[in-house]
Amino acid sequence: MEVVIFSWEYPPRIVGYLAEHVRELAVQLVKNKVKACVVTYHDFLTGEYNEADGIKTYRVTNPVKTHIGVLTWVLTLNQEVERAAANIYYNSGRQISLIDVHDWHFIPAAVTLKKGLGLPFVYSVDSLEEHRSHGANTPFNMAIKSIEWLGMYEAGKLIVKSDWMRDEVYRVYKVPLEKILAISPRSAGWIRNVLRVYGDLVGGKAAL
Amino acid sequence: MSHSLAIMMLTWEFPPRIIGGISPHVYYLSRSLARNGLKVYVVTCDFPGAPNYEVVDGVEVFRVDSYKNPSPDFASWVYLMNVNMQKEAATIVRSLNGEVDVFHAHDWLVADAGIGLKHVFRRPLLVTMHSTEIGRRNGIHFDYERMIHETEAWLTYEAWRVICCSDYMVGHVRWAFGLPGDKLVMVPNGVDTDVYTKIDDEDLSGFRLRFALPEEKIVLFVGRLVYEKGVHVLVNAVAKVLAKVNAKFVIVGNGYMKEQLSGLIKGLGLSHKVLFTGFVDDDTLRKLQRCADVSVVPSLFEPFGIVALEAMAAGSPVVVSDTGGLSEIVEHDVDGVKVYPDNLESLAWGITKVLLDKGYADWLRTNALKKVHEKYNWDRISQQTKNVYEKVLGEYSKSAWA
Question: Under an 8 A CB cutoff, do B80 and A146 touch?
Fold first, then answer.
């Protein structure tokens, strides 16, 4: 199995808690004989590509430097994530099994890759705009929510980190509960359960 | 290739959605390419009442839900719309087993979609740059404009070739984005002359009375009422023209300068001589162009100048600013009159000259019509475009992606 992980933060670029979590996921995947590629955003300090501890890391930069906000910044950056993932796909001889997208930022790229190349994806929900924006419903918040919705609709499975979040995703987006799996990264069976979700999704690939 | 050459056009406007010149351009180009044996798919934004899928003159048109995502501003809307456009286009290409040879994007409005599809399917991307932000705004002043400018630069970087509709635009785009000369190619814009020959001139005298008195000459302006179109120069020239000729100025189009311009006219006491019609339907527009004693294109920035070409096809003599694409379309004293841009004395002189000398106006009319038929017909333009596709695919076949 070969998995491509999308995350907008990854060490050494640490914005919140997600960077270390994604790093740990990649480490554990490699330990379990899963090939892991991480596609993330880089600034000028990191460099485009490196391979360490069996994890291949691709860092893309934004082709458009000037932005009016997070939304336009994320959307143009998505194209580079998409490009990097397409290159990984073709260079691997089309061997990629699935994409695991962490939070909303790179959902658009995952959706196009699914539609164009038939690659399924898992949407790993760390947080929701509903909570981050404290119920604000400006067009900006609604735009982000619409991207979250798109991810939930198009994803093969959703992984959340708690039962509470599972209920919240259901409450806010009305995603069928059987599509959402609550897997705590602190639980003993964490990686085994993540791999089970991956396996189910790849097994059901023909149904896409 | 086992199939005929297949092109996917990406455009944010396609009839019946008409915002500017891209819509008719893509329509006529696609139609002519299909007539020349190419398979053409158009992926575009939806429009009330228009079907999500239809075949128009041999062209398969897909309309994408474009207002699904709430957006804080126009640029964010554009990038979000590209998410949906890309998603739908990717679905279509996959359903065609990837049998699309070239993605052809029109302007930055579909930049993300074009670039994404290029990499996902590893097919060449072509772009037609109809305009630029730096040209529209006469420079880059704010982050909002710079973001669009950089998006345009990125699009031209990703494209295999950049098509421009005039030599002026080739030079401008090359300068604006620092492109190598061999990346640019000029293919002119075209005009459909049939829509004007179909008009029955007998009907026109009654139609004309809706806009002007019989003794008034009609001076026609068609365009958005924005700074770059120079409509304010025309409005300021009204009194100078009226000093020599009895005329009615008919201003067709909308824009942010409308209030300001009509206020100015009111202040001059010339409201009875200037008619602001707002946006009019195609039929009315074409009849007006046929009735016009002179059509004026006073633009300060003009990548191509399709209105001048339309007026020439309609048989109306033209007075244009000697700038941008207009300089190339019109040959002074042969098929139109060129005046100094942003100069009301010069503009008033040009208009007066055409209106006062019928023999001269007829001479311009005849020559202009001949030029339109020879140089700006869509059949010829689609052939030139097809040559670009074939050249690019020849180069592509030797690339690592083939």
Answer: yes
**Is residue B24 a contact partner of residue B44, using CB atoms and an 8 Å limit?**
no
Q: How far apart are the first and last CA of chain B?
A: 11
Alpha-carbon Rg for chain A, nearest whole angstrom, is 16
Better-predicted residue by pLDDT, A47 or B65: B65
Say whether residue B69 is in contact with chain A using an 8 A CB cutoff.
yes
Instruction: Specify which residues A4 forms β-bridges with.
Output: A37, A99
From chain A, the residues in CB contact with B88 under 8 A are 115
- In this structure, the answer to whether residues B75 and B182 fall within a common structural domain is yes
CB contact under 8 A, A116 and B121: yes
Pick the closest to residue B91 from A148, A114, A104, A186 (CA basis).
Answer: A114
Total of domains in chain A: 1
Q: What is the pLDDT of residues A71-112, one digit of tens each?
A: 999 999 999 999 999 999 999 999 999 999 999 999 999 999
Question: Distance (Å, rounded) from C-alpha B189 to C-alpha B378?
Answer: 8
**E strands, A8-62, where?**
35-41, 49-52, 55-60
Instruction: Dig out the tokens for B314 from the structure.
Output: 């309609």
Q: Nearest CB to B151: which of A76, A78, A143?
A: A76
Percent of chain B beyond pLDDT 70? 99
Indicate which CATH number applies to the domain containing A153: 3.40.50.2000
pLDDT at A208: 39
**Distance from the A188 Cα atom to the nearest Cα atom in chain B, whole angstroms:** 38
Alpha-carbon gap: A185 to the closest alpha carbon of chain B (Å): 31
Q: Round to whole Å and give the CA distance between A79 and A8.
A: 13
The number of domains in chain B is 2
Cβ-based contacts of A79 with chain B (< 8 Å): 112, 115-116, 119
Instruction: Tally Cβ neighbours within 10 Å of residue A95.
Output: 11
> In the predicted model, what is the mean pLDDT of chain B?
95
Considering the domain architecture, whether residues B369 and B382 belong to the same structural domain is answered as: no
Partner A contacted by B140 (CB < 8 A): no
In tens, the pLDDT along A134-175 reads: 888 899 999 999 999 999 999 999 999 999 999 999 999 999
- Residue contact A63–B150, C-beta within 8 A: yes
pLDDT digits (tens, 9 = 90+) for B345-383: 999 999 999 999 999 999 999 999 999 999 999 999 999
From A77's Cα to the closest Cα of chain B, the distance in A is 10
Cut 0.80: pTM above it = yes
Q: How far is CA B167 from CA B173, B188, B369, in A?
A: 10, 9, 21
Same domain, B238 and B107: no
B contacts of A117 (beta carbons < 8 Å): 94, 120
Crossing angle of helices B231-242/B344-356, nearest 10°? 50
Cα B264–chain centre separation = 28
Q: Is residue B6 classed as helix, strand or coil in its secondary structure?
A: strand
